């Protein structure tokens, strides 16, 4: 009989089943079994002498860098047994972010090491994916602060989230109250929402009524910026590429967030920004506020688009670059530095985490969760793709490729989220 009875994985209650079974075992050989557990709080800790069959993990892995469809493959392996200091996770929802793809291509600075150890493969591999929300399904005896049934998000990038289950150290994850927010929001808490939050907070002390200008206005990060800014009374000016459904996207972006602060969301095409509103006065007339203070800009596109938005920043303003979706370099005119005294800086979430404490990270996540709970943040467009645990791993890979085609090279502002059932 298996302690990790399959059905029970779905509810995260395998521990309860394990306990039922273990107690039976205990009755048979009570002197040889050391079992420490409490239903609903702590989990199985030790079960000496009993064979514990852990869940079968299905994962998407790569052993060399390259185009995702060329290097990714599906893998099936047993989850390593629980130790006194480890935690077992069952992933619930995982997003596909541009940085996941860059990492597989080998062009992202943070790359998880390839290893054989955990996977039992002939070649060394790493599990793809950096973000996601998981349910805690097993907690080692010496672990503090986590209980079975908790939700957890990743403390850092590089964990390898595109898998059904994982074993984690407590310092690799952060606890989230289960069910406190919806799964899609929980799955995307630590990258896009956190990036938007930090960029709005860390560069300029924004005042109510100020403006923030950003390109890639329909990206996941930008949608979070629009909502958090609105909650804090900050207006946003969002540039997006010209497209047939421009008006639809414009009204969707304008409907994001809670309007009680009176802040506005302005949407303009890159093309119009370049041709119709080129000069500062034309631009201020377009936004309808000739005294607009625009001290902060966010750039996820780079190339000419970055300079186009920088042009409209107020004197001594900041342009924060956090992405380069166009894969083009930025050519900054000297006048922007000399006469406008603009500051060009970069933001990277991984760097922020490295230089801040887990308590500061926790505080930010709590703030973001509160914004989601009060419905000020959380509305973003996503497509949920179901990933059944029962599905054969080859089928999973095929399914994954399907999702990939929708997310890469361009998501069109619709985040692809993998829901593991
Ligand atoms: N530095 C950090 O810590 C950090 C954190 C999070 C994200 N990021 C980066 O931020 C960027 C956006 O991430 P996301 O998850 O928000 O992405 P996303 O939701 O997939 O959105 C991508 C955005 O980029 C635009 N885009 C794609 N290709 C483009 C091109 N060739 N020229 C101009 N625009 C283009 C898309 O516009 P269309 O709809 O017109 O295609 C869309 O607005 C990525 O580069 C990501 O790596 C950085």
TrEMBL record:
Keywords: Fatty acid biosynthesis, Fatty acid metabolism, Lipid biosynthesis, Lipid metabolism, Mitochondrion, NADP, Oxidoreductase, Transit peptide. Residues 70-397 form the Enoyl reductase (ER) domain. It catalyses: a 2,3-saturated acyl-[ACP] + NADP(+) = a (2E)-enoyl-[ACP] + NADPH + H(+). It is an enzyme of class 1 (oxidoreductase). Its EC number is 1.3.1.104. The keyword Kinase does not apply. Its main location: mitochondrion. The keyword Aminoacyl-tRNA synthetase does not apply. GO terms for biological process: fatty acid biosynthetic process. InterPro entries: ADH-like_C (IPR013149), ADH-like_N (IPR013154), ER (IPR020843), GroES-like_sf (IPR011032), Mito_Enoyl-ACP_Reductase (IPR051034), NAD(P)-bd_dom_sf (IPR036291). CDD domains: ETR. GO terms for molecular function: enoyl-[acyl-carrier-protein] reductase (NADPH) activity. GO terms for cellular component: mitochondrion. It is found in: Mitochondrion. It comes from the Eukaryota. Belongs to the zinc-containing alcohol dehydrogenase family. Quinone oxidoreductase subfamily. PANTHER family: ENOYL-[ACYL-CARRIER-PROTEIN] REDUCTASE, MITOCHONDRIAL. This is enoyl-[acyl-carrier-protein] reductase. It comes from Ambispora gerdemannii.
């Amino acid at each position: 009989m298996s302690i990790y009875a399959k059905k029970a994985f779905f509810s995260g209650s395998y521990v309860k089943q394990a306990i039922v079974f273990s107690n039976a075992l205990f009755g048979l050989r009570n002197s040889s079994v050391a079992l420490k557990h409490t239903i609903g709080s702590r989990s199985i800790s030790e079960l000496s002498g009993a064979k514990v069959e852990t869940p079968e993990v299905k994962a998407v892995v790569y052993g060399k860098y390259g185009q995702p469809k060329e290097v990714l493959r599906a893998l099936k392996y047993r989850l390593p047994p629980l130790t006194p200091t480890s935690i077992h996770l069952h992933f619930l929802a995982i997003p596909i972010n541009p940085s996941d793809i860059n990492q597989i291509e080998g062009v992202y600075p943070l790359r998880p090491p390839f290893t054989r150890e955990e996977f039992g493969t002939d070649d060394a591999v790493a599990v793809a994916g950096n973000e996601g929300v998981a349910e805690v399904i097993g907690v080692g005896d010496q672990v503090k602060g986590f209980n079975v049934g908790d939700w957890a998000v990743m403390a850092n990038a590089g964990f390898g989230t595109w898998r059904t289950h994982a074993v984690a150290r407590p310092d690799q994850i952060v606890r989230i109250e289960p069910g406190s927010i919806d799964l899609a929001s929980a799955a995307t808490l630590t990258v896009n929402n956190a990036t938007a939050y930090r960029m709005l907070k860390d560069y300029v002390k924004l005042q109510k009524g100020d403006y923030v200008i950003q390109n890639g206005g329909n990206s996941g990060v930008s949608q979070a910026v629009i909502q958090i800014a609105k909650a804090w009374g900050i207006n946003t000016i969002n540039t997006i590429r010209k497209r047939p459904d421009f008006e639809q996207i414009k009204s969707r972006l304008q409907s994001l967030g809670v309007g009680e602060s009176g802040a506005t969301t302005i949407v303009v095409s890159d093309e119009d920004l370049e041709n119709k509103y080129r000069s500062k006065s034309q631009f201020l007339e377009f936004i309808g506020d000739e005294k607009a203070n625009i001290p902060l800009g966010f750039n996820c596109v780079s190339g000419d688009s970055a300079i186009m938005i920088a042009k409209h920043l107020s004197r001594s303003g900041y342009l924060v670059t956090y992405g380069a979706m166009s894969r083009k370099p930025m050519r900054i005119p000297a006048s922007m530095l000399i006469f406008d005294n603009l500051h060009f800086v970069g933001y990277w979430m991984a760097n922020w985490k490295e230089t801040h404490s887990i308590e500061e990270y926790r505080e930010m996540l709590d703030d973001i969760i509160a914004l989601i709970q009060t419905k000020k943040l959380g509305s973003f467009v996503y497509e949920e793709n179901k990933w059944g645990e029962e599905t054969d791993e080859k089928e999973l890979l095929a399914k994954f490729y399907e999702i990939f085609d929708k997310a890469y090279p361009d998501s069109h502002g619709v985040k692809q989220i993998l829901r593991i059932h």
